[in-house]
């Protein structure tokens, strides 16, 4: 097997293994944490220490992956097959008529009118409020 | 197998993407402090998908904003965000995806990892329609339905799917040692979203821009404007021979150049042997195909062709254009430098962050808000006209909850506090304090809820927030025992079981 092909295989497997390890680690912390929480509602599922412990075994593989990536990039190793599309129906190039400039101008004016209306009706304030006082569950902290 | 060594020098597009990502997240101080930026520029949406919970983000995410606006559409029409999306769409269309979006940059960098790749096919083309389904269901239907029916703001895509929120927001905040307390709020939602983020990241390694092509609702919205947008790739019909090389060479699932899948990255320009494709802003050419650009004088003299923007361009015009390019980059760098200075040092909002809600090591902590401490006394005028004075609550268990009308988990847990209050009336004091940042009148919001607990509004200078170490994240609960000692002070939702356990602990039962 040629070395370039080997690198691609190793790197592909490494990426999958890393993701699986991280996912299994997160699920493990959640499962153990839920069991603890069933006994004590005030205990927390996740903690910095548990996250660090789950990351430890992943770090060497991550370092290896990074090293292989840098090596591959410097040597220009890539999967050239991917640069050719397969099984695609290539349609004749559409001779599309561009919409009139008036339409674009009208949409731009409409955009500015909506923005102004939003400032007056308070919807701009909604944007600001959510952006500075973040609801934790809305970003996945929950 | 590819082994030719491509240049490691970043292309102009890559430099612009990096520049844009840095400008989107110019509040670098946030990564050090672990606090998000709370300045006035967050009234404005940035064009790309960049979560506002990222410690570096200096603007609001347009996708998160439209979901929250739809969720609040029972109170007011979402004109502002609709106008902003329309403005971005008509001016730039999916050029934003190709040139400005930080998440697009990240996906392209992940795809650089040398692995086997999944080729574009009719299956990927079919899958590209999925993002419209996600737009309709998660980004529109869920916020509208839950907002109108239950008056609870739930941004469906942000809450259940968005990898940017998990990476930039959750991981971005959690990785800071100052935010150790945030780990306490993590549960099933974080676990699920973390796994989704990993899967999407893995998909991006193997398949070019997987999130962008198959899942991104923002790309779906901008794609609707690709036909009318000002900036984008255009085909010169007089040169085009319909060979389809542009479509074959494109990494996206386009049917033709400039359709709703096209991100205007201009990679197709290199595939076109007819040199019929260029990147334009209206009528002005931004980037023309190489090698069709021949200096007329060179051709006459039999020299090797140099590159121009127009076949009839003179040498002086070429020099002028090059000079213009250098000036443009110079101005762009000046803007970036100013942005970095402003968002990290000069902005009054940044200078006010000192002493507000930053969790300091114990030896340097302001007295009172940590477990074992005693809260600084305060007085607040409640919405029902009564006055809450902390010193008067000695002898009772005290629950203080920080909430806001635009925070779904906050609104969902208020009934638990009300139930707790009713169950232990006389032995307990509960105070729910709304953030000083108000979008809907809290009194009007509460009018029909029938809750017994007292509600108050924090002062404009976040007086109570500072006393209890409140920050930019909601909700937060603080519990004091009968002696006034803090026994619990955590960000995140609470359950009825947690409240019962906290009451038992605080009352000494």
Question: Which SSEs are present, and which pair or pack?
Answer:
The complex is a heterodimer of chains A (142) and B (509).
Chain A: H1 3-39, H2 48-55, H3 58-75, H4 101-121, H5 123-132, E1 134-135
Chain B: H1 12-24, H2 29-33, H3 62-71, H4 79-91, H5 95-100, H6 102-111, H7 122-127, H8 130-150, H9 156-160, H10 163-174, H11 188-206, H12 210-215, H13 217-223, E1 231-235, H14 245-249, H15 268-271, E2 277-281, E3 284-287, H16 296-301, H17 315-346, H18 348-351, E4 379-381, E5 387-389, E6 397-403, H19 408-423, E7 428-434, H20 442-446, E8 455-457, H21 463-467, E9 473-474, E10 476-480, E11 486-491, H22 496-507
Parallel strand pairs in B: 6-7, 7-8
Antiparallel strand pairs in B: 1-2, 2-3, 4-5, 6-10, 10-11
Query: Beta fraction of the residues of chain A?
Result: under 5%
User: Low-confidence parts of chain A lasting 5 or more residues at pLDDT below 50?
Assistant: none
Strand content of chain B: 5-15%
Task: Report the total helices of chain A.
Answer: 5
Q: Would you tell me the structural class of the helices and strands of chain A?
A: mainly alpha
* Protein chain pair with the most extensive contact, residues per chain: A-B, 92 and 127 residues
Main β sheet profile of chain B: 5 strands, mixed
Kindly provide the radius of gyration of chain B, computed on alpha-carbon positions and rounded to a whole number of angstroms.
27 Å
SSE class of chain B: alpha+beta
How many beta-strand segments of chain A? 1
Order of helices and strands of chain A: HHHHHE
Question: What does it look like?
Answer:
The complex is a heterodimer of chains A (142) and B (509). Chain A has 142 residues and is an all-alpha fold. Chain A has 5 helices and 1 strand. Chain A has helices spanning 3-39, 48-55, 58-75, 101-121, 123-132, and one strand at 134-135. The longest helix of chain A is centred in the N-terminal third of the chain and has 37 residues, at 3-39. Chain B is an alpha+beta fold and 509 residues long. Chain B is 44% helix and 10% strand. Chain B has helices at 12-24, 29-33, 62-71, 79-91, 95-100, 102-111, 122-127, 130-150, 156-160, 163-174, 188-206, 210-215, 217-223, 245-249, 268-271, 296-301, 315-346, 348-351, 408-423, 442-446, 463-467, 496-507; strands spanning 231-235, 277-281, 284-287, 379-381, 387-389, 397-403, 428-434, 455-457, 473-474, 476-480, 486-491. In chain B, the strands form 3 sheets. A 5-stranded mixed β-sheet of chain B has the order 8-7-6-10-11. Chain B has a 3-stranded antiparallel β-sheet with strand order 1-2-3, with no helix packed on it. Chain B has a two-stranded antiparallel sheet with strand order 4-5. Chain B starts with 11 loop residues before the first helix and ends with a helix. At the A-B interface, α1, α3, α4, α5 and β1 of A face α3, α4, α10, α11 and α14 of B.
